[in-house]
Structure formats: structure tokens, C-alpha cells
Amino acid sequence: MNDVRTEVEPRTAAGDVLTDIIMRTFRLYGGFLEAAEVMTKPVGLTAAWWQVLGAVMRQPLPVAGIAREMSLTRQSVQRIADLLVEKGLAEYVPNPAHKRAKLFRPTAAGWEAVSGLTRAQHAFTNRISAQVDLDDLRTTLKVMERLIEALDADQPPASDG
């Protein structure tokens, strides 16, 4: 019998805590996704549609830019973007910086649908945030931003091929 042993990276207290954070983040994401589905249904959206439309409420972006911003695959964003265009909630417009990568932006109907979520979103976030200290929320946001920076710095460079 072949005795192949692989060296295991030693555990650290920080690594164990980060593992717990990751597991809680999965649970938190699931809860937020469920809440988003409830909020979006009355305005004819889904949580995924809201996520993609939300990425372009400030400025139009190419699909690849939305995917990068949201840490989603370009293909999944493309599928949702095409569906939103088909439903009349968004449109593709020429991109002066790139001939083939059109910009994606909401239509008036898309703006209206997302705007219709504002009241439900504020009610939800106010209800949940009232149960957590404001300073704790601010600290959580800072830590999440630092973890995102660390993740980004840990990624291998993109290949040009």
C-alpha cells in the first residue's frame, strides 16, 4: 500500500477564527438572500436581478465589470443581464472605451423597480440593525473591507491569454 502523506499547513488561532467567519458569512448570505427574495417579489424582480441592476444604478458598466464588482462569473451576469434587457428593465448602450463590450444600464422601468424596493429595504435594514450596536456595525464593515482587500491581494494575476 502506498503511504502518501501530504504536509498539512499548521492551524492558527486567526485561521480558525477566519474559518468561523467564513461559515457565518455563508449563513448570513443565505439569510440576506431569503430577505431579498421577499423584498423583490412585489416589484417583479428576483434577488439576482436586483444584485445585477444594483451594480449599475450609479453608472453603466460592461458585464465583465459587474461580474468583477460582485465576484460573480461573467457568464452568470451575462445571462441575468440579457434577461433584464428582454424584460425591458435594462439596456445595452455603446461603450466609448471598448467597441465590443457594451455598457449595461437600467431603463426607466428598471429604475422604477429598484426604487420600489427602497421602502422594504429600509424597513428590513432598520429592523435588523436596531438589534446590533452601531459601532459594531461600523467595525464589521471595516473588517469586511480589509478581508476583501486581503482576498484581492491573494489572487493570482489575471492572464492575458
From TrEMBL:
SMART domains: HTH_MARR (SM00347). InterPro entries: HTH_MarR-typ, MarR/SlyA-like, WH-like_DNA-bd_sf, WH_DNA-bd_sf. Residues 15-149 form the HTH marR-type domain. Gene3D superfamilies: Winged helix-like DNA-binding domain superfamily/Winged helix DNA-binding domain. This is MarR family winged helix-turn-helix transcriptional regulator. It comes from Saccharothrix hoggarensis.
